[in-house]
Amino acid sequence: MRDKKTVLKNGLIILIFFALSCIFMSSFIEINKFNVVSDSSFHLTRANEIYQNLKQGSLFTFIATHTFNHTGVANFLFYPTVFLYPLALLRFIFNPITSIYIWVGMFLFLTLVIAFYSMLDFSKSYFRSFIFALIYALVPYHLYLGIWNGVYGEYVAYTFIPLVFLGLYHVLWGNKDKWLILSMGMTLLCFSHILSVYIATFLCIVLFLCKVLTQKLPAKRLINLLKSVFVTVLLAGWEFVPFLTDYLGQNIEAPRKQFYFLHSFDDLVNGSLQNTCGGGYCLWPDLRNYPNCHTIYWNYIYKKF
User: Fold this and answer.
1) Strand 280-282 relative to strand 259-261: parallel, antiparallel, unpaired?
2) Which of 224, 205, 202 is nearest to 213 (CA)?
3) What is the SS3 assignment for 214-262?
4) C-alpha closest to that of 99 among 23, 154, 48, 56
5) Residue 281: which H helix or E strand, with range?
6) What's the confidence (pLDDT) of residue 257?
7) Domain locations in the chain?
8) Which is it for the CA torsion 254, 145, 76, 162, positive or negative?
9) Region for residue 150 given its phi and psi (left: phi exceeds 0; alpha: psi -120 to 50; beta: otherwise)
10) Is a pLDDT exceeding 60 seen at residue 36?
11) What 3-state class would DSSP assign to 61?
């Protein structure tokens, strides 16, 4: 970064990523509509609970007292919430729809930047890194997670996956002194999406075994790998303590798989007569059979969020 030309090149690339993210999300902000499905409703309700608590001066959220029908649901103890705080803070400035899309755009920008510099560290090629960042961040599945289906845990975790595998590469094959990258990547995954942590850990174990079975692993690399695991546990351990103490062995039951929206008063009446939870339900992968269950416009989400 001491080289002026390198500084300008990096600045230009970051500016392109920022402009691309702004242009991409501005069209959705202008439309001022948002699709609500079961996943997005769940995460936005959690963000709303954090927002309501912040308004009352409470920094940490453990149970839901304003949302989830005031049932005191404790998913905040068992599901990462760190990256929902920026969304809740944006709600103090912007309306709900704008807040959501700005937050999604922020992570789109971060995904572009992290993917670019991860590949640059690995390949030393600006062109290759730039193309990789565009493909990785703008692949339809990633946009589907963030814009259409609202799977925000996985959407956020997607941002930090390149750090995990860059860090593992350095620990096993590259610069062994960069082992902290693996710790940072795994910790950020822990703050995003637990299932992604399981999958990434499994893949790291597989790659580690492949390395051990095919090549000799120097003691220094093994020590750095253990150091990376230890630092990750220290940084993310506070998040798993409530899970171990308040979930395991406490006979907590999971909710029903179906997710219901009441679209009209008829749904309420018919559901009462049939002794069911609601008329229009969404059960993946059958969303396509219920087109009305996942298109609810901004006035609905404004009231909820």
Assistant:
1) antiparallel
2) 205
3) HCCCCHHHHHHHHHHHHHHHHHHHHHHHHHHHHCCCCCCCCCCCCEEEC
4) 48
5) strand 280-282
6) 57
7) 4-246, 259-304
8) positive
9) left
10) yes
11) coil
Beta bridge partners of 261: 280
Provide the percentage of residues in the chain whose pLDDT is more than 90.
57
**How many CB atoms are located within 10 Å of the residue 106 CB?**
17
Q: In angstroms, rounded to a whole number, what is the distance separating the alpha carbons of residues 298 and 28?
A: 12
Place of tokens 């999604």: 104
Residue 300, number of CB atoms within 10 A of its CB? 15
Point out the least confidently predicted range of 49-58, 69-78, 281-290: 281-290
> Which position has the token pair 């565009």?
134
pLDDT tens for residues 8-26? 999 999 999 999 999 989 9
User: 106 CB contacts (<8 Å, ≥6 apart)?
Assistant: 21, 86
Model confidence pLDDT, tens digit, residues 114-143: 999 999 999 999 999 999 999 999 999 999
Closest CA to 82 of 61, 57, 110: 61
Residue 289 tokens, joined:
């059979």
Q: Closest Cα to residue 211, out of 177, 161, 171, 164?
A: 171
Instruction: Name, in order, each residue with C-beta under 8 angstroms of 210's C-beta and a sequence gap of 6 or more.
Output: none
The amino acid at 93 = I
Residue 172 near residue 207 (C-beta atoms within 8 A)? yes
Q: What is the DSSP letter of 145?
A: I
The predicted pLDDT at position 227 comes to 96
User: What single-letter DSSP state applies at residue 15?
Assistant: H
The neighbour count for residue 71, using CB atoms within 10 Å, is 10
Q: Is 30 exposed, middle or buried (0-12, 13-18, 19+ CB in 10 A)?
A: exposed
Q: How many CA atoms lie within 13 A of 53 on its CB side?
A: 19
Mean pLDDT score across all residues of the chain: 84
